[in-house]
Amino acid sequence: MLELLAEMEALVAAPGDWLATIRVMLCYAACQHRLPDLGHPRRFTDWVQWRKLNERDPLQTVLMDKLASKAMAGRRLGPDWTVPTLWSGPQLPDAPPFAAPAILKARHGCNQYRVLRDLPDAREWRGLQALTQQWTRAPYGGWLDEWGYAGVPRGLIAEPLLPGEDGGLPRDYKIYVFGGQATHVQVHLGRGRRHRWVLHDRDYRQLVPQADRPPPPRSLGAMLAAAEELAAGWDFLRVDFYEVAGRPLFGEFCLYPGSGLDPFAADWIDRELGRLWAEARQPLPSAGAVSWTNTSSRSASRVVTSSMA
Fold first, then answer.
1. Helix 44-54 vs helix 267-280: angle between axes, to the nearest 10 degrees?
2. CATH topology of domain 57-81+167-309
């Protein structure tokens, strides 16, 4: 309690949204069983909370937009790196506008999706319309103070369903990039079923030994190079990929992994990633200095292709 009072006293002189700061602190304390250090972040999870409260770069909205970010990745890496869009729109029409199998997602949010292995019948489609209307009723991320989502246009996007493990969703390879250097590979398994993840270093060594020992993707080198290309100019950015038949595909960007609320397998990992984030901020060119629209996809492809060889 004394620690909490001291933190609150320090906030009296601090600018910003007081209610957001209190929400962030209490939510973090409930999940991590300690208060975040917002004045001098040391852990990775502290830095995520700091980002929520302090960073207001308009490019964050582009990164969180599933349509805009995919277009950005296609310009930087080439169109072969992106999953085709079957359909997009503000709401579902009265009849399915795309073929199955497909995955339907919220354009503006996270963990809002439905897998459609077959096209729904009329009753099921009406239920899906009602569900997606709930997704688009309000901006995503407000309750967690994830500002980057606030300005993303609300809507839906459908993509082909990629082949996955044991008939489920494909493995997700999440690359942590600090100051333009890809340092860690987090592999997500059993998504939509028994979801779990394993964190590796850049050389694909598990940080904490786990029962799951997924092999490295064949295209890991290409993923690392592509992640560094896409994250250039950011102190920290996570870039996610899939792999289909040895071919890497861009998934999405993430500014707030786990909202900084999921604990790591060991506290030293939280501190080590926090150190990398702090070092990446000393100093770093503005993300706005990197062109997201005019970069030649051919030059980006050369970087990536060389790492695939």
1. 50
2. D-amino Acid Aminotransferase; Chain A, domain 1 (3.30.470)
DSSP state, residue 206: B
Task: Give dist(CA 242, CA 55) in Å, integer.
Answer: 28
DSSP state of 256: S
Using one digit for the tens of pLDDT, what is the confidence trace for 99-130?
Answer: 999 999 999 999 999 999 999 999 999 999 99
Whether 230 shows a pLDDT value over 50: the answer reads yes
SS3 label, residue 66: helix
**What are all long-range contacts of 302-308, with beta carbons under 8 Å and residues at least 24 apart?**
303/225, 303/226, 303/229, 304/77, 304/78, 304/81, 304/222, 304/225, 304/226, 304/229, 305/222, 306/225, 307/221, 307/222, 307/224, 307/225, 308/219, 308/221, 308/222
Structure tokens given for 270? 């939280």
What phi and psi, each to the nearest 5 degrees, are found at residue 34?
A: -165, 165
List, by residue range, all CATH 3.30.470 domains of the chain. Answer: 57-81+167-309
Residue 138 tokens read as: 């309000």
**Residue 184, SS3?**
strand
pLDDT tens by residue, 44-84: 999 999 999 999 999 999 999 999 999 999 999 999 999 99
Edge-to-edge order in the sheet of strand 236-244: 196-201, 181-189, 172-178, 236-244, 247-254
Q: Could you tell me the pTM of the whole model?
A: 0.88
